[in-house]
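Researcher: Good morning. I'm working through a list of sequences from a screen, and I'd like to move beyond sequence-only analysis. For each chain I'm collecting a predicted structure so we can compare shapes side by side. This is the next one on the list. No need for commentary yet; just the structure.
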Amino acid sequence: MRARMWDKLVVNCLINPITAVLGVENGRLLEDMEALSVLRDAFEEAVRIARAEGVRLSDGLWEAALEICRKTARNRSSMLQDLDRGRKTEIDALTGALLEAAERRGVDTPVNRTLHRLVRMLERRARPETEGRS
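Model: Good morning. Structure tokens for this chain:
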């Protein structure tokens, strides 16, 4: 059960923040080599975090994440929709949780940390009443 929860967390930490930052539908991540590269780098960091936590992610999780992008190609992620509507996103619950585990285990996470920061900046832009708060 714990491994399945981690699988879901990892996939959501890949697709949601990157689509939110880029402002694109899920399938566009597969069409842009730079976006795909960021997706892969974020995935590799998440795998290292899971290992440090003693979690074995499902075999083929990378391919599963890509398949989700294909199957939901025309979807706008919930994180992107939240930004579009000026609502707080789930970035802290998703990527924030991943970053907390990384910090506990001493795993470096420059890509996921940057994605977290970028989404938080976009949240503040979309929600001016929270300007200056973190």
